[in-house]
Amino acid sequence: MRIPAHRLLPATALTAASALLTGCFAGAESTTDTGADGKRIRLAMMQPPRSGLSPLSDDAFKLSRWSTAETLVKLDADGDAEPALATKWQQSGRTWTFEIRDGVTFHDGTRLDAEAVVRSLSTAATASPKPRILDGVELTAKAEDADTVTVTTGTEDPLVPQRLSSPQLSILATKAYKGKLVDPLGAGTGPFELTKVNGTSSATLDRYDDYWGGKAKSPGIDVKFVPDGTARAAALRSGEADIVEAVPVSQAALLDKDLITEVPMPRTNTFYLNTEKGVFKDASLRAAAREAIDAESIVKGVYEGRADVAEGLLGPALPWAAELRTPVQRTKAAKADGQTITIGTFTDRAELPEVAAALQQQLQKAGFKVKLEIREYANIESDMLAGDFDAFILSRATILDSGDPAAYLYSDFASDGSFNISQLADTSVDKALKTAGETRTGEARRKAVIAAEAAVLGTDAAVPMLHERVIQGDAAGVVDAAHDPRERELVTADTRVR
Fold this sequence. Notes:
alpha+beta, D-Maltodextrin-Binding Protein, domain 2, Dipeptide-binding Protein, domain 1, Dipeptide-binding Protein, domain 3, eleven-stranded mixed sheet, 27% helix, Peptide/Ni-bd, peptide transmembrane transporter activity
């Protein structure tokens, strides 16, 4: 395979990556411990914790990917709910009844019971902000007896089991809850116990031998947070890491093809436009920006063909979306005439700064003056959510939480959505989102979701550009690492290193 010249690393870059790796992986003496029953798993992850590994934040997905925190239900490949910490459930109007699995203990040795479930769910339901899976949802939990919990919503909700599969609704031991803080250290139920967290640099997990689902095949996991994509790829190439999360597209061609796995995923690279203030308050200028974007050239130039050009917000990971989608009514575009816009994005996903540079050129060619503001995600998120940019480029998972895209659409585009980057407040969009959320699962719900997508696209509050593919690196000795398009699983009880 010919490597494009612009992808070749100069010697200075290689030296810098090696120095970074030395700092990231040195001193982890436990990572080389083979023990009597196998090697510990050395894991290089992209983003460091943002909220002290609180399950009420996006850090919950780290806890899930490390198999340390678990939920009442989990999702199968089709997005349907199946048993986890709950063995069965049934619906009666607004109330769902869940039977709690017997014989489960938390990592501190205490027993899983209905009260523990209620405490975890109630903390999430009353948090500020709420976990996004509960956006627009009024939820209360009650212990009926030691092994039975009822969950009641303000209106009848067909998606309660799927919502309860979100890692942000993980069930933790009493010790985890300290005032407004939630600390998962030693408080999960999974096959691995979180035993140590070193700020934003590393974490250590050890096998929990009393796990209800059977003993894990690896004695533990040593996690290093490595935001630099070049360094993560170099860790796989040099043998310093066993599993590498989110290998950048720019590095994939430099790795042995047998060490990487590429899977189309429900993640859309979207250009969000601020509809509340600034240049893009004008719908015709939003339309002008949409027409200026050449997504195909971005896929070829930045992603080297390892992505799919977007036709809508929902991509090929949900094949039914393309089958149901119809043409969208759009505003006529005005001509840009030197208006200055500021576009924000972040460095944590290596491709995004390149996407921003490509968009800058495309929009300038269309008549806009474009400034870029690029920081680490932790340092830009609050400004992004406050609407401080004219536009923002975000790589966004579309079914991450519930296996159903209605929750993502509500979170990002409802007037009261907790992740409404576009500051969109549109009554027709709100109505379509409400209908989608209330429709029972199946074909009717899928049609309602696509109608909601069309309502959003019609505002040009968001321009979907491309659908990403996850690229994961697994060393030659890794067995049974998960390759999960939803990014919920990575190291499981079956994962081991030969």
